[in-house]
């Protein structure tokens, strides 16, 4: 079993229908270990997205992530990282709409930045991101959960 971090971005949390539909997809595909609404401050967002610092979209991204509450989930399943990224679809919504029209980003994304959701891209990122978004949880619980 593997765990990953899923984040539903602010424009999705504001849209009751989209939020419910995505939650249903999550519940059908994963065991939800933890779930909470989280307000990602600009400072937290800068830390979370540090790998993108200096890129042209960085300011736009961290500003957007702080524009309202996000919803965070710790998901568990076999190959959860690849599975959740597969369900999300390509980063760029305009590409997702053509190549994977049924994926979450194609259905609920609005733009390159407002692409509906986030998913960790490796086991290391998952551990790092979970500890940033869920600092109240014991990290050891997750680093050893991959058996
Ligand atoms: O989220 P993902 O791992 O698929 O993509 P990323 O390359 O790690 O980029 C992180 C986030 O930055 C994306 O999910 C978008 O919200 C945002 N982004 C953007 O605003 N403009 C781009 N050209 C690329 C990414
Ligand atoms: Mg990424």
Q: What does this entry look like structurally?
A:
The mean pLDDT is 95. A four-stranded antiparallel beta sheet has the order 2-3-1-4, with helices on both faces. The protein has a single domain (2-87, 119-142), classed as 2-Layer Sandwich (Alpha-Beta Plaits), CATH 3.30.70.141. The protein is an alpha+beta fold and 147 residues long. It has helices at residues 10-13, 16-29, 42-48, 58-65, 80-88, 93-99, 104-108, 123-133, 140-143; strands spanning 2-8, 31-38, 70-77, 117-119. The longest helix has 14 residues, at 16-29. Helix content is 47%, strand content 18%. The N and C termini lie close together (6 Å). The protein contains nine helices and four strands, in the order E-H-H-E-H-H-E-H-H-H-E-H-H. Helix 3 packs across helix 4. The radius of gyration is 14 Å and the shape is globular. The structure holds cytidine-5'-diphosphate and magnesium ion. Cytidine-5'-diphosphate is lined by residues 52, 57, 60-61, 91, 112-113, 115, 118, 121.
Query: Can you list the strand order of the major beta sheet?
Result: 2-3-1-4
Question: Mind summarizing the main beta sheet?
Answer: 4 strands, antiparallel
Number of helices: 9
CATH architecture: 2-Layer Sandwich
Order of helices and strands: EHHEHHEHHHEHH
Could you name the CATH homologous superfamily? Nucleoside diphosphate kinase-like domain
CATH class: Alpha Beta
Number of domains: 1
């Amino acid at each position: 079993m593997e765990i990953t971090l899923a984040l539903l971005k602010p424009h999705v949390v504001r849209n009751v229908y989209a939020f419910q539909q995505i939650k249903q997809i999550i519940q059908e595909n994963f065991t939800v270990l933890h779930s909470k609404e989280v307000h990602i401050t600009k400072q937290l967002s800068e830390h979370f997205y540090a790998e993108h610092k200096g890129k042209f979209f960085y300011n736009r991204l961290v500003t957007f992530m702080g524009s309202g509450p996000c919803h965070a989930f710790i998901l568990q399943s076999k190959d959860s990282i690849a599975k959740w990224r597969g369900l999300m679809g390509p980063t760029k919504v305009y590409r997702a709409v053509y190549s994977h029209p049924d994926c979450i980003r194609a259905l609920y994304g609005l733009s390159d930045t407002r692409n509906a959701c986030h998913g960790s891209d490796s086991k290391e990122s998952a551990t790092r991101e979970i500890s940033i978004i869920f600092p109240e949880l014991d990290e050891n619980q997750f680093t050893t959960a991959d058996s």
